[in-house]
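Recall that a protein's primary structure is simply its ordered list of amino acids. Everything else, from secondary elements to tertiary packing, is in principle encoded there. The following example makes that idea concrete.
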Amino acid sequence: MLRMTAGLRTVGSLALTLAVLALTGAGVTQLVAGAMTAMVATFAIREKQRGAQAVTLAVGLPVALVSVSLAAVLSERAAAGDVFFVVLIYCAVYARRFGDRGTALGLIGFQVYFASLFIGASPDGLPGIWAALAVAFGCSAVMRFAVVPVVPAGLLARLREAFRARLAQLVTAQLALLDAEGDEVDKALANVRAGTARLHETALMIQTRLERGTPDASSARLVQRRIADAELAAERLGLLLLTARSAERADTTLTLHLPGAPAPEAGRTDAPDEATAALRRDLLSLRTQVLHAGPGVEGTSIAHVRNRLLAYRDEENLPACSPALQDVFRAIGEASRAVMGLRIALDGPQDESDDTPSAARSREELDAEDAAIDAGEEDEPAEEDKGLRRPTTRAAVQVAVGSSLAVVGGELLSSQGWHWAVLTCWLVFINTESTGEILVKGYRRLLGTLLGVVAGIALAGLVGGHTWTAFALILVLIFAMAYTAPLSYTLMSFFVTAMVGLLYTLLHTYSWEVLVLRVAETALGAACGVFAAFLVLPVRTDQRTDELLGTVLERLTEVTEAAVDQLSGGPAADLLDRARELDKALGELRAATKPLTHPVTPLRGRRDTARYVVALLETCAYHARSLAATAELLPAHPSIAADPRLRGATARTVRNISTIAARVAGEDTKAGIETGPSFASLLGGSDGDGASRYGRITGRVLRHLERLDEAVVGLARPLDVPLTGDGPQ
């Protein structure tokens, strides 16, 4: 829906611009200038608040007018125009340091200058082009604020529905896993993995938009907490279901998160058939509760389902079956409570007339937790690198050097089409941080251009001289470009190149030679960008990934220490925000490793290692989030008490994370990863009676700490850190 909205807004801006200009009798040159400007005025603005968007749009118009005017004036002075173009590119990239507005204005300035070169703007034609630009910005504003508006509260509501749908899909996948037999287990397990990942992705999308879609910071924190509760409850249900399915209580946590890991054995537990049938019925009931969790749809039957599931939170209501299956029933009760809490947080107080004692107790717990949630403290601004170490400055220097090479090389290929080389060089630096990312993006740009040229030839032959047919096809291609941009850079480049073929047709400059030149200039621009990235202030891919890996380990330590400290009786901390920072750092690392995990990479060993490390870190992040969510229950939850013995149990894991971080940072350390006895034994009990001795909550914390420690130890081999200690290795 987000991509479709962006595509409709862009296409609507173009269509409205073309309609207005056509009614005023504008020529083809003005139509093309207006269309290209409307497109950039729409997709360049990324600010979240509507007021900020309006300011950027208003400032963008004079920037565009100045840019097109300078391009027209300097068109008769080739050397001065080339120098100014390179300076403009430097300033446009450097402006990224000033946030979304600086990025948008830099993009508008560059793209309008490029459009002026494309249409061959001259000083005599400036008045008509100025008018076309003004119309384009006006139409873009109309589409953005009136026709296809993005209202933060409405966007959050759609994301909530998406989260509800993803949660229902995950429960459906878990139900299929319960019923899977033989060869079906692998497929069912893969569906559970995919459903868990999609639910987490949706939760992160909601968290990034909470402050804009909720009335105040306190409400945002409440919704964030309830989203996290529902996500963790669903993940925990899947893990316990896997444990119950396994004939041997294998390490199901790593099985769930590691790609390519073997599935648990297909054997069933020895639970009676009636317990399994009840479990199947209750999973269906949970899915029904999730699907009917929207505002104003809960009736007596749904309340009855909810009450029955919430009863499993009391030990006396659990069915007589194996301990593993009882854990699954408990997890269903916790998931039902999380769904109820999310609905209360989003829709306000609900009808309590049908509450059973279990439901009333759950509601009281939720109210107590809600009262304990405050707005939190402002994060301290992070220290920023200076000079050439600042990412925006470094990127500006790199792209300026690459663009200079592209100008010179492009002029040698053609004095008319050299600007395509500069455009490609510019584009490969957008949203990239390392040489590997630039190399992959240049390859994708070239591949998309090659395929787009073929499509452009076919479309140009189909359209012929029919102007409005060409514009209609351009609108279709623009929508496809906007819709596929977040998914595939190759597809986006394909649609852009096909559209350019139609623009050449409209300007009566289309020919086979022009399209071949377009491919050559694109290849040259990509080569210049890669050359500059490798030789001018380079940031190697392994350097970038090591930095981000260090950040992930640092965030993991912060979340783990703070959560265990609070569970041990320490002061309350802002745990969910720290967990969100961990997820953000892990997402950046995952994106930075894409060049290493690209299908065409020749370094198969590095690809497998990168995937393995990221999978283990995802496991660590899951258990850290679970510890944080459990710790945040402590201040208000009547059935959870602090256990001071937990504080010492996590010391080994934290030391291991610090050892790995030091090795990744290149510090001279001879320390190794420590292994040793289980966490339950560290607290003075045995593995077998840990849960009963310490209580169900402490037992849950111990399980998360055990799995977190195992995942951290698993990082030792791929990161070449030695193992020490007398425990299992």
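The chain is about 75% helix and 0% strand. The beta strands are 673-675, 723-725.
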